[in-house]
Specification:
Helix content is 38%, strand content 27%. The chain has four helices and eleven strands. It is rod-shaped, with a radius of gyration of 34 Å. The N terminus is likely disordered.
Amino acid sequence: MVTAESYIGSNDFWNMAISVGFGVLIGVGGAWATLRSNNPKRRVVWNQSSNTTLLRSTSPSAPSAVSVSHAGTTLVEPRLVELEFSNSGRRDISPTDFASGDESLIFDFGANIVTVLDTEVDPPSAPKPQHVIDGPLLKVKKVLVARNQRVTFSVLVDGPKGNIKLAAAHLTNTPVKRGVAGATRFLGGLVLTMAVLVTLATFLVSRVMSAPGEAADLKMDKRLLESCRYWDQHDKEKADKMCPPIRKP
């Protein structure tokens, strides 16, 4: 008890405690900075969620018995493509953040857009963005895109299969990148958790590595304590010189 109490009150104990505290703070602070940099105030994440051919390909000598037409026009290579984008930042994107009006957010479908079949928003109470079709381009009109809001366009195109490309992204202080909604926030939380775990693991390893030395110190303290008891009874002068003063509760 005397040995443990003397260690807890020693400079070594407090130095170790302060070092561990600073280590945890640095680890958490670094992870938090990474999370903040990966999740800015406003951010648009978009993705091509599906690209489905509506007609099976057949040889010219065996034409398909099924056809797809729109407004009286038969489509040659009809496909249903879904475009999804969301605001994964920490603040809403307002209409004034669209720096170039209706030319701010443009997606290229790589084939002629026939029509937009449906526009879904999540949550359902959020405003639906309007759009303009210009050949293979889908231009999203400026609109309020709330934090965590998701928009999905179901688009009917006629042409060879290809991937959607981002043709223009002019939003004020708002990066626009391809990705999966929610992935950035998940990765940021994972980084924060890993930083804390690494900091704690480093502390535990350091404690294990220093355990033999501390055991030797405790053994030496025990011998000194036994010697001090003997000197206290038989050699007061030596006890006063060699032994630490006894602290009474």
